[in-house]
């Protein structure tokens, strides 16, 4: 009877893990989706990251990664050292890391009246953490500050970050890279949109707010994590006794 109970516990734990952790067969608890959102990057593809890109003048770009449709709406794209942007922008030197290519390109707006919208479609129900990167390889005329708003299953354009400052320059350390960490929930298969809104003060045509890319992580519910741990422990105990 004990052995049968242990198997049932382990089976329940495995079922809970599969139910809550996968929005696509390849994306599980603890894994991170890494996506570079940019223009035609040529040699600037960030190693180990998936790519969603389009031509320089496209207002909207879209792509599918692991079953998730990713759409970025902005003004256009920029990439340092490419044929379209030439020598106007230097490739960013990530002095203590390896994100040089990621930080050297992105989708952008250069008008305070415009926003960058990142929309995710096709995520399974659950809680998520997303880290977005905002580095401008062009030196602005003034600090570029921006807000982040989120729309998910129970919020519409709710302010979650205020007065963030974009990093900039052809050289940057990890500590100085501008990132925004946002948590959101999917319930009933709803779409999720993050809006990056540049503040009007000091923001003009010489300034740029970029979205270089993002890292998305599924956050398991504490109860599911505990159940999975119990199930695995039970399996190990059963093996030892047998």
How does the SSE layout of this entry go?
Elements: H1 2-21, E1 32-39, E2 50-54, E3 60-65, E4 68-73, E5 76-79, E6 93-94, E7 105-109, E8 116-121, E9 126-133, E10 135-136, E11 145-151, E12 158-165, E13 167-168, E14 171-172, E15 179-186, E16 192-198, E17 209-211, E18 213-219, H2 222-241
Helix pairs in contact: 1-2
Structure description:
- This protein is of the alpha+beta class and 242 residues long.
- It folds into 2 domains: 1-25 and 221-242; 30-219, Jelly Rolls (Sandwich), CATH 2.60.120.
- The protein contains 2 helices and 18 strands.
- The protein has helices at 2-21, 222-241; strands at residues 32-39, 50-54, 60-65, 68-73, 76-79, 93-94, 105-109, 116-121, 126-133, 135-136, 145-151, 158-165, 167-168, 171-172, 179-186, 192-198, 209-211, 213-219.
- It has a 6-stranded antiparallel β-sheet, with no helix packed on it.
- Strand 3 and strand 4 (68-73) form a beta hairpin.
- Residues 1-26 and 223-239 have low confidence and may be disordered.
């Amino acid at each position: 009877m004990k052995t049968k109970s242990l198997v049932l516990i382990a089976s329940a734990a495995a079922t809970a893990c599969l139910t809550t952790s996968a929005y696509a067969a390849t994306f599980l608890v603890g894994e991170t989706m890494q996506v570079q959102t940019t223009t035609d990057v040529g040699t600037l593809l960030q190693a180990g990251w998936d790519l969603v890109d389009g031509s320089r003048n496209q207002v909207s770009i879209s792509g599918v990664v692991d079953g998730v449709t990713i759409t970025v709406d902005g003004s256009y794209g920029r990439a340092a050292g490419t044929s379209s942007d030439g020598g106007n922008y230097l490739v960013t030197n990530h002095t203590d890391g390896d994100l040089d290519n990621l930080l050297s390109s992105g989708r952008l707006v250069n008008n305070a009246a415009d926003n960058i919208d990142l929309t995710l479609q096709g995520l399974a129900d659950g809680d998520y953490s997303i880290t977005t990167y905002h580095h401008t390889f062009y030196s602005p005329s003034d600090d570029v500050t921006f807000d982040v708003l989120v729309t998910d299953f129970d919020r519409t354009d709710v302010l979650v970050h205020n007065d963030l400052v974009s990093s900039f320059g052809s050289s940057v350390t990890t500590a100085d890279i501008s990132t925004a960490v946002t948590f959101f929930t999917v319930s009933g298969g709803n779409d999720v949109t993050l809006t990056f809104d540049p503040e009007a003060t000091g923001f003009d045509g010489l300034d740029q707010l970029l979205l270089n890319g993002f890292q998305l992580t599924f956050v398991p519910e504490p109860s599911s994590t505990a159940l999975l741990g119990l199930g695995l422990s039970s399996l190990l105990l059963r093996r030892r006794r047998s």
